[in-house]
Amino acid sequence: MRDDPYIGLLVVLAPLSIASIGGATAIYAPLQYEAVDVRQWVTGAQFLDMFAMSRFIPGPSSILGALIGFKIAGILGALVAMIALYLPSSALCYAVGAVWDKHRGKPWHTALEQGLAPIAAGLIMAGVLSLYRITGGDVLTGAVILAAAAALTWKRKLHPFILLAGGAIAFELAWLLGR
Amino acid sequence: MEPGQQPRVGYAALYRVFFWIGLFSFGGGLLPWIQREIVTLRGWMRDEDFLPGVAMAQILPGVNSTNMAVFVGQRLRGAPGAAVALVGMLTGPFLVMLVAAVSYQQVLGVPAIHAAMAGAAAGALGMMLRMGVTAVRSAGRSFGPILVMVAVFVAVGVLRWSLIPVVLVAIPVSVAIAWPRGGKNA
Question: A21 φ, ψ to 5°?
Fold first, then answer.
């Protein structure tokens, strides 16, 4: 049973789905340990390659798990990995949301909602800061972040493509000039 | 507060919205994009219904964007809506992942692509900053909520304490602060 790649993917990835608190970055260390050291699905170098590649793929960066699934068991392996990665956490989120809705309008519910608001605000700002740090925290990145935020303040319905493309063009120019 | 009064959203429309968001979600920070599509452009939800979901999506385990898709889909069309939004969100990344898995050696060697991706990620971070400003404004103007907000930001963002213990302390404190107001407003 340990040799069946589909069961292996489910056994490794489904717990990581629930363990990925605060986003996909939480699962990198345990995923590397399982995929490289314990099960030897990929080598350490292949894992790093896939990690870099996952940054080029839209969506959650935990999709790295689906790349590994594809590597060991093709399209079906990738599909099984996707289910294992996203179904458990989504089911939990659904269950919490359902309970939440049922108690709408009760005083404790309103208090909880109002109490969560400043926590959400603090977490969003903390997320901006920690992602800024991951990018390397250079001046160009900071300038693009502020420019994009200012542009959105100026025009609230501005299309995200414009902001993403604007950032990409700015970086592309800087890269060409600095070459 | 009448959640039943929201317009009924079709499954196809729901799938389409999340498909496009998912396909172009580079560099994280998807929640502001979802807010724009669902609240600002289509009016399917209001900010005060959407923002609690932002907190929930971040606090619960799992990826923020898929949690938010489940939250929005559930609010709009129940369990099938949650499934449609989640699958819509993941369809694009899954397809791109398959293409990338087949062709990755070539793609990784191009430094221009690296630069463009980093720039797009910075643009996405700007969107997140703007959303943070909205969230800060709507979080309350009195001393208590502002203190909670700053404490959470400093603990998680500056000091990089781990999320779970911070949130486990912050929720009871923040709810206790909100309790009297919550009682009166309900």
Answer: -85, 130
Chain A residues near residue B139 by CB distance under 8 angstroms: 117-118, 120-121
Name chain A contacts of B31, Cβ cutoff 8 Å.
124
User: Structural domain boundaries of chain A?
Assistant: 1-102
Whole-complex ipTM: 0.78
Tens of pLDDT along A137-157?
789 999 999 999 999 899 888
The minimal CB distance from B25 to the residues A59, A121, A123 is found for: A59
**Residues A12-49 pLDDT 10s:** 999 888 877 656 666 777 888 889 889 999 988 788 77
Q: What is the DSSP string of B25-73?
A: --SS--HHHHHIIIIIIT-SS-HHHHHHHHHHHHHSBS-HHHHHHHHHH
Question: Nearest chain A Cα to B127, which residue?
Answer: A149
Flag whether residue B12 sits within 8 Å of chain A, measured between CB atoms: no
